[in-house]
Protein 1
Amino acid sequence: MKKNLCMTTLAAMLASAAAAETGVTLFGVIDTGLEVLNNTPDANGNASRRSHLNSGNLWGSRWGLRGREDLGGGLQAIYHLESGFDSDTGASGQNGRLFGRGAYVGLAGKSHQVTLGRRNNTLYDYIYPFDPTGMAAYSALTHDAVLAGRADNAIRYDGQFQDLEMTGLYSFGYDGSLKDGGEMAGAPRIGRELGIGLRYAPGALAFGLAFDQRHGTSHASQGIADRRLAAGVSYSSGSVISYFGYRWFAPTSPDMSSRASNLYWGGLKYQATPAFSMVGMSAYTDTRGSAADPLTFALLGTYDLSKRSSLYLLASYASNRGGSNLGVNGFDEQIVSGSNQTGVIAGILHQF
């Protein structure tokens, strides 16, 4: 009996040690809602109403694996695989990539890490916390989708210095789905992306700053770069959090100066009860040298059924002025040219 007890104890100790050295986590989100839009073009181009199921309205639907191995001396090997999908159809997201939301491996210490692979850009991770809706479908992303961009073929450093976080990213070709999108011999600027980010959060007040530069994805456009500088601030006071954000955008080519713009947004989040929260925000794009300056408003109500499941109602109104053509989901074909648009989404989200 003593021998069996010793063997059982030893097995338990070995299992505990193995668990401490290596950890693998399966995680995911399924977010699906019913969206209703007005002023969408029908087959003849006339204004019509559209009703459809839509995925990833608050959080992108995804599943993934992440893990780490203890290498000793405070050093760990880490990896992250995250697959985005459309929960209304089951199709892979991010242009059909298997792990389009992230795929990287690296080394991490107590306060520093270096990773290689597909990563969020610096705008995504360092400006996202300053959008009141958390970069939901109707948010600052409506005005600029690159605020939640990702980069293939990236090397990224992340550091934590007490209340200060910082990051730096270099991509050899941010869109590997393009035939000649990067990593071309003799043309290192094709598809190159650079980014840096800082966030300081000592308490109720938090600040974020991020810079991103993307070069063209062809031999002809490699010398042209889109530059974005964004900043955000938030302040928490009891059950209310206030937000403000700004993004400056300019291409380096004078021939493309008409695309330059300033984007402003702000809003409030109110935690009415532990389970129910409300958000109100507005965003405005000032297109430099043009009167085409769209304005959007968004309202979001979220009710948590549990720690993992939530119901939500998200609504937005896009006001187009001076010839702008912005829908509640962005600058795309889902709005009749010159019209304003209203969108409403009712959905459910579950985390696992």
Protein 2
Amino acid sequence: MIRQSLIAYGAALAETKAALPEPKGSEVLLKVSSCGVCHSDLHLQDGHFDLGDGKRLDITSGRQLPFTLGHEIAGHVEKAGPDAGPLDPGSFYAVYPWCGCGQCEKCRKGQEQLCDTPRHLGITVDGGFASHVLVPHPRYLIDAHGIDRRLAGSYMCSGLTAYSAIRKAERFLPANGSVMIVGLGGLGMMGLEIARALTSARPYAADVVAGKRETALALGAVAAFDPTAPDARKLVLKQAGAMDVAIDFVGSEASLTFAQSVVGKGGAVIIVGLMGGRFSLPVPMFPLRELTLAGSYVGSLDEARALMALVREGRVRPIPVSERPLSEANAALGDLRAGGVTGRVILKP
């Protein structure tokens, strides 16, 4: 099979070839039809997360090179192990990539994405920037018939992450409340669309790129703001009032500072993005504002299935998407790194 592989951290991907793996036990060999390019792929390519103040979280251990990135995967079954059960090779599947060990308490509770010994496709084991990918069990294959084939795999990360964050936000949202979506990349665009589908909240948006703000308005945002403007907070409070919830899909010092600044008393900030940096707020502000800061990491398998049902019902409209051949993986990563992507880029083997 052909892959776009990480051969050294901090370096470009390279085309590599390998024999097709033979599925064993419950494993399923999937022929990849598309794989989305996610900002997390950039962190994996770099080999670290930025912790601020010049500090880094090294994430290079436990991954043998060459390694295949890509976790937003969709395709068809090519072959299955003897314990996988009957599978229709003509069916189209999205792959839930956040596979756990299946044995620990988190996995038994259905929170495989939080497993301490994960088998996350494209993160800890080879993923979908390839012609084929090995999936550990058919339960991770989610029927994607009737769903935009270009975006089916992306719903398993950017869509699922947004869905889970919106679900967490709902407990802080009164009827006809307000939610600020911070960051309008593929993840934030999904967040805006899913917030519209799941809640009665008035959706607002913020991004540093004017074109992305315009897209958010076209998708139904009540208003869109430039968070870097000197009077950004005042503009939000004047035009929209204090937010009940802000969801930070960037995860940087600047984005989180803005997000918490526009949330009113008793509100919450849900932190999703992994851009990096440090953040501080005087301790008395938490009780005085009754402010909640919460993290949200992708989502569960049950949430993935619920999201796909929502998409199939037509309640979540497709976000902008562009297609590139697998051979252009480096160009796609470069454009994403430069902030030049609206919506999602998918790679097609």
Protein 3
Amino acid sequence: MSYAFRELLRKVGSGTHTSESLTREDAAAATRMMLLQEATPAQIGAFMIAHRIRRPTGTELAGMLDAYEELGPRLQPIASAYPVTVMGVPYDGRSRTAPLSPLIALILATAKCPVIMHGGNRMPTKEGEPLIDFWRGLGVDWSQLSLTQVQHVLAATGLGFIYLPSHFPLAHGLVPYRDQIGKRPPLATMELIWSPYAGDAHVVSGFVHPPTELMFQDAIAQRGVTHFTSVKGLEGSGDLPRERTAIIGLGIPTIGFERLHLHPRDYGFEGKNVALDATPKLVKAMTTVLGGHPSEWMQSTLWSGGFYLWRCGGCPSLEAGIQEARRLLTEGLVLQKLQEIQQVATPLQLTH
């Protein structure tokens, strides 16, 4: 048993009136001891559920990110025309709506706006479809690449993916606790703003509840991140909804935080979000979009892809971003980018 961890557990688990928030240093220490399994399983489970009930603070999230930076993987800076965008999505996947982020990432990479994604396999508590399976369906199996090989693909094509089981096994070792406690632990909140990139990055995260966004703002401000985007998106992701107004937070260097409300009907995109289906069917639909064919999938992709082209600096306005996304797709340039990634990654998969 770790007596040092027990003291931290006492602070967060003492009840409504006597529990204490951890300092940034204590939160980093607690996360480090959990990642290294220096705390016992009973201690880790107790900490996760107690912290879940009390809810983490921005300072605690910052400390948890400090530990991830210390012990986790970090892709090295690459030369690029635009900052690298790190897209954080819930690791436990999707259960109602189809994910747009693989297509968004491909559009951005085509426009020379590099993207890093991260995640693992099917995961508690939702046990939804993970992004890694959609990438496999598109012919890029990030799970078969070493971290060095992912670095090579990122530098060569502008796209990379950190796969927890092989690139961050310490974090993957904590996944079973999510199932055992039956709730998302605060780690699942922190992961949305984790940036496994050693250079300056544009951090994009989805959120569901407004208090979560406030915690994000506090945490990343303490860590010196000024370029970020928070989206009240589909199932906690950064995918823009089409059935309601998109509520977006913009962190802008030298300016600060700004609130943006985007009404899809104002741009001709009001409609139903694409429903989740079997992964092979969704992958087939994705390839149809990559072929430039009109569909509801295409409309959803243009809405989100156009926004991110503008937000990531590739276009001067949202309207220009939508038009550019349409051009890149209909002219087959995004499909060419996917084929380029396949050509770079596939030989590496065979040697891993």
Protein 4
Amino acid sequence: MALKLLQNGRLLTRAFQNLHITPTTSTIFAKNNDLNLNFSRNTSFFVKLPAEDLWKGVTSVSNAGRKRGRAKGLVRRKDLNRGQVIGVGKANIQWPGLSAPIIRGRELIQRQQLPPDPEREAKLIKMRDAMSSKGYQKLSPLDRGWTGAKLGGRSIGAPDPIGDDNFEGFDTKVIEYKQVFNMKGNLGRKRRLSAFVVTGNHNGLAGFASAKAVDGKAVLRKAKNRAAQKLMYIELCDGHTVFHDFFCQFGLTKIFVEKKPEGFGLVCHRAIREICQLVGIKNLYAKVEGATGVQHIVKAFFLGLLKQKKFEEIAESKGLHLVEFKPELGNFPRVVASPKVCRKEDDIKYDEIMDYTQVAMNGKVVLKRKKYPPFYANTYGYHIHLKKLEGRRNHFKIKFDMLKEHGTIKSFLTDKYPDARPHGFILRDAYLKKKAEGEETSAE
């Protein structure tokens, strides 16, 4: 082999036998000083060691340092092969049989240069960093639970099918996910994971269960499949709420639940809200008193849902008609249930509880916060306002009661003096009277 160099406009050819190489130096000296070559090292610290040793130098810590908490701020290992696909690189080329099918329909695909993808490097970096910061991929805000870092409130899907039975339309929410420890005589402190979940089909079927296992995926699968075997049917009132207000208790946990009209929403504890969504309840108010452990809250609320009484059962137990007043219907009375034999007024005892709320709450009364007077209650201007308002302070309530009872605003003098009614109603009555006379004339 010969070296061909162009020097001073002429071609120099030197054979290796004319070179004198000194072993202790990295320089080649040619005869007559015509040729000088320098060798360079092609190995370094970053190429000499494998990737496993390089990552170990960045991510490892001694056992003594780990006990002192020095392992918390270490860099997590990145998978540099994540997102790399065979046949796809910086040069965006379509390779038939590798990165693209050979035949597309009736078209034979040829190798071709595609337009460059400027976001490829950014996507690879984002994909690699997703598992490096905290050990899990960032979730969408809609997929998060009660917090961004824990499993509480997160959906884990429907239970696994049992034979030919598929749980279509079901969903499972994690209520509690924690570590539990048990001291063994031969194994020492044994660590396991505990999960408490609720599953439901958003249409009255729901169940809850807890499970323990060593692996996280195993404990979630075990808990949701166990909850699917303990389903309970809960009937809904009008398809969106409970039948009546009720009180329920489990241990030291007490819950007061109130029925609410459509559009109110779910104003309650977050564990109760998850249960309501899985059962199908859309409007409800619940107040929790006492202990606030989520397992006791779930058990107490399920007990209250199962102990609900239908309207027919309440009417039959009291022997009276059950009448409902709804604000959205103008508080118009509506009989929702009637007993087979209705009691008379003489049959009702003087000390019998007739308040529907106390009957539904089983004699319990919600402790409501005391209402304090506003800051302007003792001012001079507010007292003047009350004096001016004294003559008409109950007008709105009286108008409302008149419309509810008589359908119009009138007093005991209205029959004798027809003008003794509000001005707007006089015009309305005259208009209705004139309209009725016109209809009679047209009918004739």
